[in-house]
Every structure is written in C-alpha cells, then in structure tokens.
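Box 4.2: Ligand-aware structure prediction
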Amino acid sequence: MIGLIFGPPGSGKGTQAAHVEREFKLSHLSTGDILRAEVKRGSDIGKEAERIMRAGDLVPDDLIIRIVQGILRDPNVSSDVLLDGFPRTLEQAKALDAMLATEGHKVDFVIAFEVPEDILVERLLHRAKVEGRADDTRDAITERMHEYRNLTARVLDHYRKAGVRVEEIDGVGEVDEVFERIRNALEP
Ligand code: AP5
C-alpha cells in the first residue's frame, strides 16, 4: 500500500501523517524530515540542501529521487508507506511511478489538503516563534508557497489523470477533526 499525503506548506501533512501512520499501519516517510536530519548531521547531502531549504526552494530532483529510491528499495523498510513531501514535481512523480512499477506497485491513494493561504502563513509564523524552524521566515514562506503553486500543485493533476484515488480534505479545524475527515475518506 502506497499513500501520499499532499498539500501546501503548513497544511498539516506531518501532523496528520503521524495519526494516519498509527491508524492505518503505514510507515511515514517525510522527505523534509530526512533532509533536516542530514543538515543536522552535517553530511554531504545536508551541506548541499541546507542553503536551498533555508531559502524555501526545492532541492534538486535527482538528489531527492536518489534518497527515496534508496529507502524504498531497502528490504528492511515496510512496503506499506505514507509518503509526505514527495513527489513535489512532475519529474519526481514520474520517477516514483517508475520505481513502483518495477515492483508491480502503484500509488494507491492521495490525501490532499485544502487550507487557505492566510491560515497557512499564520500557522508557520506561529511555529517560527515556538520551534524556530530555519525555513519559517517570511521570505522563505513566500518562496515555499510560490514553489508549491508553480511546481507541486500539478502533481495532483498527474495522479487524477492516472485514475488514482484522490481524497480532498478540508484541512481547517482542530487536528482531531481533520483526522476524522481523513478516516472517513479512507475507510471503505
Ligand atoms: P517539508 O518538511 O515537506 O515542509 P513543507 O511542505 O513546507 O511543510 P511543513 O512541514 O511546513 O508543513 P506540513 O504540511 O507538514 O504541516 P505541519 O503538520 O508541519 O519540506 C521542507 C523543505 O525540504 C522544502 O521547502 C524543500 O526545500 C525540501 N524538500 C522536502 N521534500 C522535497 C522534495 N520532495 N523535493 C524537493 N525539495 C524537498 O503543520 C504546520 C504547523 O501547523 C505546525 O506548527 C502544526 O502544529 C500546525 N498545525 C497542523 N495542523 C493544524 C491544525 N489543524 N490547526 C492548527 N495548527 C495546525
């Protein structure tokens, strides 16, 4: 089972993925978390990604595709996965489809959040005060929204056209309330 959790910055992907992981027994894989861990470790990947992420831009497709490929091919990783933050470009989506096809798999569902931009910005600026994440600055948030609108949003059309089940979820409200919507959408 391969699911995607999809939406603009601050829409609740990471927050809700933790609940979906528990409830539906999927293993949560966040490319943002992986990259932040690399930055923290000071690895070569981290060094390459740090400045790009701080500016709110996307890291190069080939870099992130290599990382995801390595994880999905790892025999110790469950084959029931919830991908968060990947794919983010058409290039990445096509690479993921090709990776899965070699094993006879495909993306089974997409959970796609809809949240108005003013609420997204408010959430991220609030997190900036509480957690101080390096890309929660006003400039980086503007750039992240721009990248989402220009490159990432079209990934959803790619999966719609491919006939993949896309569940659009209103991401506004209490965390539990939003999760209830996801549960209702995913349960048969
Ligand atoms: P990534 O870590 O994926 O960040 P993002 O997409 O900008 O999303 P966020 O983590 O900010 O938000 P989220 O939707 O997960 O919401 P969250 O639950 O955290 O990527 C970071 C960077 O890494 C990218 O900009 C790029 O540089 C690079 N990168 C990653 N993947 C890549 C890829 N595939 N290709 C290229 N580059 C890539 O919630 C946000 C805040 O809101 C939290 O404080 C939370 O507590 C709060 N919140 C959540 N739900 C609610 C609610 N219902 N009500 C009120 N507050 C809420």
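In the box above, the bound molecule is BIS(adenosine)-5'-pentaphosphate. Residues 7, 9-15, 31-32, 35, 52-53, 56-59, 64, 85-86, 88, 92, 123, 127, 135, 144, 173, 175, 178 surround BIS(adenosine)-5'-pentaphosphate (CB under 6 Å).
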